TrEMBL record:
Heterotrimer of A, B and C subunits. One of its GO terms (biological process) is translation. This is Glutamyl-tRNA(Gln) amidotransferase subunit A. GO terms for molecular function: ATP binding; glutaminyl-tRNA synthase (glutamine-hydrolyzing) activity; transferase activity. NCBIfam families: gatA. The active site is at K52, S151. Residues 1-436 form the Amidase domain. The gene is gatA_2.
Length: 444
């Protein structure tokens, strides 16, 4: 922990991966030493973990990188944090993110952007950009993020680390601030598949406090070293149709060559409704955001800007508290759910979601796993997309379908374009998450 703290002190001023460090980290590490001495078996004894700032930590601010929660101190730990502490891990700090996990670059943080450790002029990806940058720069060996539409996988790809999003329900959402509840999952980030498995084993598994939690025991470390010969990988042809940069296509070819050498078979599969995924995602996502963010009204949480009466207090608080992207999504979500437009937008998006699920099932009838780029390009420049919300949304074209269907997926580092890392995305059928770890390790 001391070594990591020294590294943070040296590199954090350039990177800004953290919103705040845990002032009690050393003290907590000493308590872990005591537990070890008393003979407790602690799989993550003393391991510093970086946590995205939308994961509640008791007694330590949790702001979602928003002014509206700037002073919010949770009275309890999220289930994932409780499990980390039980395993002996130490919370190193809370990482930077796009406000309320809306964005693709970590530039929509109310506290300033994070920089990509490979090139400070570029974004680390988002919305878990702080977690990905922290792991890539070795400010922490492992980190947690959240993934609503790619927010763990895309920054993992941009920063050259592993990023995993489980089957919806395998990691508890209790104590994780809701963005879009039917899409949100906590995800894990690490520099090696073995570290990723160890961390994922600790944080996943059934939780009675999350009603969408699944009864599936974690077996991630056991999946390491499993034979992969005979598996079939389906390359989704619609994901390769256009817009991918040369380094991304090269990484795909290289992955294929290496894995064919290990006995993996490759086939081309089609997911025709993939082209509607982004549109459906941004309707479902904004609809749920407009509902979830209604609670920030100056009454219960964080910021309160008093007005003449309660309505004015609410208006002033929300006007001061929310940044431009949060406002845009609340407005869009309110619109797509409004009487008269609900059927044309929200209802249609739900139908597209159902068809996408059927298409994915058909693809899995032909292949054990699916393969796409994680993102069509490597990390883009700071400021490149902030003026154009639609360009920013397009950065998620490869990742959002996975969340709409609730599938498990992993981004793995698979090459470089110039000096910038490139990631590939593997997708597994529901509850076959462990297969991703077997295949990723065989490539590693
Ligand atoms: N970039 C996507 C969005 O802005 C995904 C965000 C996320 O996964 N939290 O909605």
């Amino acid at each position: 922990l001391a070594a990591y703290l020294a590294r943070v002190e040296r590199l954090e001023p350039q990177l800004h991966a953290f919103i705040r460090l845990n002032p009690r980290a050393l003290e907590e590490a000493r308590r872990v030493e005591g537990r070890l001495a008393a003979g407790e078996a602690l799989p993550l004894a003393g391991v510093p973990v970086a946590l995205k700032d939308n994961i509640c930590t008791r007694g330590l601010e949790t702001t979602c990188a928003s002014r509206v929660l700037a002073s919010f101190v949770p009275p309890y730990d999220a289930t994932v944090v409780e499990r980390l502490r039980q395993a002996g891990a130490v919370v190193l700090g809370k990482t930077n993110m796009d406000e309320f996990a809306m964005g693709s670059s970590t530039e929509y943080s109310a506290f300033g952007p994070t920089r990509n450790p490979w090139d400070p002029e570029r974004v680390p990806g988002g919305t878990s950009g702080g977690s990905a940058a922290a792991v890539a720069a070795d400010l922490a060996p492992v980190a947690l993020g959240t993934d609503t539409g790619g927010s763990v996988r895309q920054p993992a790809a941009f920063c050259g680390v592993y990023g995993f999003k489980p089957t919806y329900g395998r990691i508890s959402r209790y104590g994780v601030v809701a963005t879009a509840s039917s899409l949100d999952q906590v995800g894990t980030l690490a520099r090696t598949v073995a570290d990723l498995a160890l961390l994922t084993d600790v944080v996943s598994g059934p939780d009675p406090r999350d009603s969408t939690s699944l009864e599936a025991e974690p077996r991630f470390a056991q999946a390491l070293g499993a034979p992969v010969g005979g598996l079939t990988v389906g390359v989704i042809k619609e994901a390769l149709a256009e817009g991918n940069s040369p380094g991304v296509l090269e990484a795909l070819e290289r992955f294929r060559a290496v894995m064919e050498g290990r006995g993996v078979r490759f086939v081309e599969v089609s997911v025709p409704t993939l082209r509607y995924a982004l549109a459906a995602y941004y309707i479902v996502n904004t609809a749920e955001i407009s509902s979830n963010l209604a609670r920030y009204d100056g009454t219960l949480y964080g910021l309160r800007v008093p007005g003449e009466d309660s309505v004015e207090t609410m208006m002033r608080t929300r006007e001061k508290g929310f940044g431009p992207e949060a406002r845009r999504r609340i407005l869009m979500g309110t619109f797509v759910l409004s009487a008269g437009y609900y059927a044309a937008y929200y209802g249609r998006a739900l139908r597209a979601r159902a068809r996408l699920k059927a298409d994915m099932e058909a693809a899995f009838a032909q292949a054990d796993l699916l393969l796409t780029p994680t993102s069509p390009t490597p990390a883009f420049r700071l400021g490149e997309k902030t003026g154009d919300p639609l360009a920013m949304y397009l950065a998620d074209v490869d990742t959002v379908a996975v969340n709409l269907v609730g599938l498990p997926a992993m981004s793995l580092p698979a090459g470089f374009e110039g000096a910038l890392p490139v990631g590939l995305q593997l997708v597994a059928p529901p509850l076959r998450d462990e297969l991703l770890f077997s295949l990723a390790q065989a490539f590693e």
